[in-house]
Amino acid sequence: MSKNHLAALPLGGVGEIGHNCMVYECNGDHIVVDAGVSFADETAPGTDIIVPDTRYIREHAKSLKGVFITHAHEDHIGAMGYLWDDFNGAPVYVTAFAKQVLLSKLTELGIKPEKGQLIEVKAGEKLKAGNFEAEYIPVAHSIPEAFAIAFKTSYGTFVHTGDYKFDDAPNFGQKTDEKRMKELGKEGVLAVLGDSTNSFKMSPAGSEADIIPHLTDVIKNAKQKVVFVSFASNIGRVLQVAQIAADNGRRVCFLGRTVNKMLQHCKTLGYFPAGLANSIVDAEEIKGFPPEKTLVFASGTQGESNASLTRLSQGADVRGVKLKEGDTVIMSSKMIPGNERAILNTINGLYKRGCIVLSELNDKQIHVSGHGSRADMEKMYAMLKPQMVIPVHGEPAQLIENAKLAKSLGYGALNVFNGQKIVMAGKDKAEYPHIQQHQYPHGRNYIDGLNILDNDPLILKERRKLSFDGVISATLVIKASNGEILSDVQLTSKGVIDEQAQEDILKEAAIATTSALERVFAGGQVDSPQKAAEVMEKTIKRALKINRGKQPTVLTHIITV
User: Fold this and answer.
1) May I ask the CATH architecture of the domain 470-560?
2) How many CB atoms lie within 10 A of CB 522?
3) I want to staple 129 with a disulfide (CB 3.0 to 4.6 A). Which of 65, 103, 148, 200 is the partner?
4) C-alpha–C-alpha distance, residues 169 and 174, integer Å
């Protein structure tokens, strides 16, 4: 394939929510925009988070000219440490806030960037990376220092919007730079790769300032302890709510490492409100104050199993904090698709504790999205006037709806999904834009403790089977000299049966297995341990299928003495 073209290849976040990662190519040079994570789910039991499959980046590491981070949300920056080696020492462009977040992540993983590898950027600065020239343009979003990035190439300019909306009263005062967007539109924009999250949302996205009066009333009128839950990275809202609590005579504590790290980054960069520190106490201290004088920040917006809110909803004592009847819990966040069941389990647990629960289910005034609605998208396209819109950041329905919106406004639009390379412009006579027929390596990798499972279907398949069918361990003891079977097969189980109430099932399976071995091996002498293991596994599965309707995983152990 010719390298003389301008192309985009999404490796994550285009056709799904989370682990955003886009690769751009211009005349053989490559850059990456964002490397994020998403939540693991029941399809990958035991894993922690999901990161994009970066085989394509590794294959083109020598031509990688830079990694550009739009902002410090986990779904855009969270995978950087895990994928660090894949970037082959390429420069990483980050804002001051994103740099603080990234350095913290790298330190946890024992990674030390090369001198000069992390390049701190400012709005309007022109950055050269191979055949690309990048410019960071401020946008309003629910985290400090969010940016769209305009990339100039020999084929024209394209804009990667990142997450954005238009907000006249945003956190930390950063508005979307409409003036610069309009200037780019006049200069000429080849393509916009735009956020699709709220492409179905007809009503305005709303401002962070819109929800503050209501949150103030809720906290002011709460009779007992208030527990507030939002994304730790939505640090503007976190700080505003903390200030509301302090202004109403409440002491504030923060449960969770992530939010405390975010607070420290804010202090380092001067985003932390003066005087608020006097109202902050740790969890061990806050239990010494009357409930009506306390507010606790908890983690667990998406019902994560180990999050503090999830544990509180189950009646746990979390570092001295425990929910009581009449406490108010404010869940100031949106359910991410796929997490609904876990979140509802948490909400049900809170109701069982007798809590007053405010969530998107019953109160639309406690959360406002950091992503623009259709009106914001229309405004962005009207300013940039692109030749084409390529929807990104969303599930298929959201992407397709975004494309429909763009077409209805008179712009060209083309849908692309993870693993598909869209060629936006080129030097030959091909029709542009077009999507190449070839599917490139992409998918989900799973962070599993200290390991990365590279789309490993075997391990995850085994885990899923164990979680559904359980496991039986079968032990056979034979004589080392001649293979004589010295005792009946011994069986133990996990997750298959109640061995005390149904021990006869295991006994019958053990007897059947011993008999099968004696039939297969003349004189009860095992001359092939491998064949014996096969007989044991097959017989045990057959017996359990008859008695339980299940075929568990069977682990065989043949011991010679």
Assistant:
1) Roll (3.10)
2) 8
3) 65
4) 8
Q: What is the pTM of this model?
A: 0.86
Mean pLDDT of 214-241: 93
> Which residues sit opposite 252 in a β-bridge?
280, 295
- To which CATH superfamily is domain 208-358 assigned? Metallo-hydrolase/oxidoreductase (3.40.50.10710)
Tens digit of pLDDT for each residue in 103-137? 999 999 999 999 999 999 999 999 999 999 999 99
Most confident of 153-167, 273-287, 468-482: 153-167
Domain boundaries in the chain?
5-203+369-457, 208-358, 470-560
Sequence-ordered alpha helix ranges (H) in 146-294: 178-187, 208-221, 235-247, 257-269, 283-286
Max Cα–Cα distance, the chain, nearest Å: 91
Sequence-separated (6 or more) residues with CB below 8 Å from residue 19: 12, 13, 36, 37, 38, 50, 51, 52, 75, 79, 444
What does pLDDT average to over the chain?
Answer: 91
Assign 383 to helix, strand or coil. Answer: helix
Q: What is 488-501 written as a DSSP string?
A: --EEEEESS--TTT
Name every residue whose Cβ is closer than 8 Å to that of residue 159 and which is 6 or more positions away in sequence.
137, 148, 149, 150, 151, 184, 189, 191, 192, 193, 384, 386
